[in-house]
Write a structure and sequence with these properties.
The chain is built from ten helices and no strands. By secondary structure, it is an all-alpha fold.
Length: about 190
């Protein structure tokens, strides 16, 4: 193993679990999170010589991860617009609703942390990224600004708006739980 490889390994090893955790928060699926972390580390290895401040390794890796996730999500959205998945059963499925619990019911059946993370993932990426980095990962406003490559004031405004959107989503979940869904409401 070369000196460069040893140095890269030593600097990235301590952050891999936290990087995977962040990717999992963003992706919501283990396989996708693993892919994102692998791609992040590949890009980091490719550009390792450009990293000036070795002490900022975690912030640098988070910035790369954010770009990897955004690229992947854009690619998936574009793919869905260009060639949506169509099956013969789509019309049948639309005509006969599925009795299995939907995303809302599944979220309610999970632990509260999972509900919170799912609600965060449901937010637009510009808000979920800031909330995950600031509130979940505990980065400072300045660190979040550096990772996302946006001004610190933008971090603060997105965090404020994202928290309001998240609170509204959680309140709506609670309200939906308290409201009868079987049509036996009084008119």
């Amino acid at each position: 193993m070369s000196t460069r490889q040893q140095q890269f390994q030593a600097l990235t090893q301590q952050w891999r679990d936290r990087l995977f955790s962040m990717a999992l928060h963003k992706a919501g699926a283990v396989a996708t999170a693993e892919d994102w972390v692998q791609e992040t580390l590949l890009r980091a290895w490719r550009d390792f010589d450009r990293l000036g401040d070795k002490l900022a390794m975690y912030a640098w890796l988070l910035k790369i991860l954010d770009h990897v996730a955004a690229d992947d999500l854009r690619r998936d959205n574009r793919r869905q617009r260009i060639a949506p998945v169509i099956s013969v059963e789509d019309d049948v499925l639309q005509a006969h609703p599925n009795a299995a619990p939907g995303p809302f019911e599944q979220t309610l059946q999970q632990q509260s942390d999972e509900k919170l993370l799912a609600s965060i993932r449901a937010l637009p990426n510009e808000f979920s990224s800031v909330i995950l980095l600031r509130d979940i990962e505990g980065l400072s406003y300045l660190e979040v600004a550096e990772v996302l490559d946006i001004p610190q004031g933008t971090v603060m405004s997105r965090l404020s708006r994202g928290r309001r959107l998240l609170a509204r989503a959680l309140i709506n979940q609670q309200h939906s739980l308290a409201t009868p869904q079987n049509g036996n409401q009084r008119e």
